[in-house]
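Weekly puzzle thread! Below is a chain. First person to post its structure in token form gets bragging rights.
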Amino acid sequence: MKVTICMGSACTLMGANSIYDAVELINEQICGPESDLCSAESLEIELSHCLGYCKNKEAGEVAPVVVIDDEILYKATAQEVSEKIINKLKI
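Winning reply:
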């Protein structure tokens, strides 16, 4: 599963760092030394300078933006992203 977190200025100001921290925590839990889940499902975390979604003025405020595989999450929260990852990993 690929998780891309926008770290552009608007997304960072709106909480992208806390989302990254939450995703890293999940990654540590599933790929830690006492877990065998990492081999079953890998979690790829990518930080993007800017995904460009905020440039669409008609969309309004969308930051922070996270993409999980092909699903785009606007106004994402650490809790929402964590729940989506856990549900997809079925842990």
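Puzzle host: Confirmed. Bonus trivia for everyone else. The mean pLDDT is 88.
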